[in-house]
Amino acid sequence: MIALFKRELLIALRGGGGALTGVIFFLCVITIVPFGIGPDLKLLSQIGPAVLWIGALLATLLGLDRLFQQDKEDGSLDILVCQEHALTWLIFVKCIAHWIVSTLPLVIATPLFGLMLNVSPMGILASMVTLFVGTPAITFIGAVGASVTVTLPRGGVLIAILVLPLVIPVLIFGVLSIDGAINEPQPFTAPFLILCAFTLFTSVLGPLAASVMLRHSAD
Amino acid sequence: MKLVAETISVNRGIKRVVQDLSFEVEQSEALIVTGENGAGKSTLLRAIAGLLPLDSGSVDLQGGKEELLLREQCHYLGHQNGLKTALSVKENLEFWQNFSGEPDFAIQETLEIVGLAHTLDLPVGYLSTGMKRRIAIAKLLITRKQVWIVDEPTAGLDGASSKMFIDICSAFCDDGGILIAATHLPLDLKKTKSLHVEMLDTYADDAFDSGLDT
Amino acid sequence: MIENTKNNIGIWARLGAWLTHMANPTRFMRFADRTIPYLAGLSLSLFAIGLYLGFTAPQDYQQGATVQIMFVHVPSAWLAMMCFSVMAVSGIGTLVWRHPLADVSLRAAAPIGLAFTFLALVTGSLWGKPMWGAWWVWDARLTSVFILFLIYIGIIALSRAIEEPTTAARSLSVITLVGWIIIPIIKFSVKWWNTLHQPASVSKLGAPSMDAVFLYPLLTMALAFTVLFFCLHFMNMRNEILRRRLRVLKIKSGQLGKGSAV
Amino acid sequence: MFGDHAAYIVPSYLISLLVMLGLIGWIRITYSSHKKALKALEAKGIKRASSK
User: Is the ipTM of this complex over 0.85?
Assistant: First the structure.
């Protein structure tokens, strides 16, 4: 499994840009927002955390269709699924590797984008923490979508339709807990814990469902 | 040890490809699957390798490792090579060696067998089609599995390389392996059996087609 | 006690036997042909009773005449969720028992569920305007039902996209089962977020918090909707079976190459 | 009959009726078109396996 993890990271790094595409897309979303609503700093700082979350969510969805597609195309998937390693575990490792390569850079870049949106330091910290905890859930849910559409030639759009509704709760709780961190009367712990629970829950459910799907996806 | 298939039926989509087929392959024996294009050789091989569900019947490796499934004890080499173009030959082979079962030959050694020792550190993307295929063949050697299931293994190989592949196969069979191959190449092995797959005109969606026999 | 369990096993065994019996599409078609008229009749009479009771009900002191909307809104919302649960059970049927009709049932239910979810959203919106002063409020219940609407669309899109029947059946089942998580979210959203939407008033069957003049028409309408759903579901399952047959025949006769769907 | 709220109640019943009728209509039309297509195929001599 460590071998698989290393391979996934290596491919992503060699492929170049894999990590950067997400960050650049994230940057695009962040830049477009002030153009859309005008450069009102007060308003920006208010909606900033939500914009950060939406940008991160879309950027995470961006690369998901490649999660299994590449392995399917070059035949690796066939060999991967018939090893003695549990398929669920294998998918879990792939998800984690994918998250580290494509989403972790976003989390690290969050402070910079937060400053551009005039988010308070506390808000930036909260955004980073909630993104760090919440975005893996998006990858795990996305793995189900990716496994379902792996046989389709143009699965990308379909993944978005299938996965978007399911990740909305993640977004809601992510933004709620940032809100709780900034505005005093709102609670922070409750939504944050629900967010953690959601990630843990999907980390089991997502790979499990994807493995049911991939076991005989071959044709 | 022998591989036993009992009255297996396999569908591809709604088309029935194999109907109630039974065969046995003994240790050190090779089963050569032949048949015209589209008859379902690949589908049959994929089903044996556990990549497609059997509609009925069973395939078992008798006398193999008890705790492992058949699909975990076989090497499957399909039409694609299962190599990552972004990684070097060494990285590719190292990964599969670590990932799939117990190591057999050393990587350098296998590359010498397939005659590509000089490519060790080249990215797979730089290699030609035939060379990639030879690396994929080398992949069969780096971990030890009892059964090889190979689908058109010599596609894209020249005469000399095909000869090399036959030598590898006969060494594998002499060593007690079981080989199942879909190929038109005359495999010059000691013990071979052949299986001809006929195109069927049956459809598997009979639940929606035949209905009641009224 | 012992007798009771025995009886239970008997019921489950009989249900199992019946489901196995129905695994043959032709047999199901016959069953559906026979039951559909009864279901339609039953649903129609329930609608007549429910509508009569509803229109003669007095005005609610808080909500005025708009309480009338409840009689279509609540049953639609109920169906939206029940239909998804029927689909989820069908999904289990496909993955675990490989029942040939489970996939048919799932596919047939999806458009019906979509229609009723749409109805629930629209009537909710029409009710919300006079009550809350806005057509749409992003409260928890509305948002989660809207997510359900999107999931229905996703499932239908997926069912159209994958052509090979066994792969499609598996994909749809997996996505439906994963998506089912939205149902408890809808159910408890009002409790969790404590928003505008009124909490369920019929759920406590022992002591409903609703006056009987509203409760009876509501229950009758809910029953009418439920029967209507099964009627439509059977009808659409029949369509789906015919579509499959047509597909098989067309492939056989060579009118349909790989890559085109019926 | 419905007081000042008729503007909301009538449309909600109307749209319910329309959606249900539409659903029923759609299902019935699909049914008859599938039946017709099956008949047409049978007329051409393509039969189901069971009716051999």
Answer: no
